[in-house]
Amino acid sequence: MKCPKCEREDFFSISRTRRIVESRGIATKNKSTGGNNSGYNNYKGNWKQEITNLDKKMFLRCNACENQIEPSELEDISEVKIDKNKGVLFISETTSESPEINDKD
Ligand SMILES: [Zn+2]
Residue 28, SS3? Predict the structure, then answer.
């Protein structure tokens, strides 16, 4: 399968977004400037990781150009199903959505 944006073949991935909030305290008391809030309030320590937030939504991405790929951008594909254990199912436009077999003749 080829990327519709950069033409790279077989370089797809499933991605998810993780958001990290970090904080670093500041000293607002006992400053060398005399505590009148003129001048810099110094940092009290290093950055601390506070919240890690994983967005549950997974999406198809090209690892070469790093663009998110919508199913409609892929040739002959109408839907992309992402299963977190099994992998990715590409549903073709020509495949019937209905599992019923039309066997009347
Ligand atoms: Zn690409």
Answer: coil
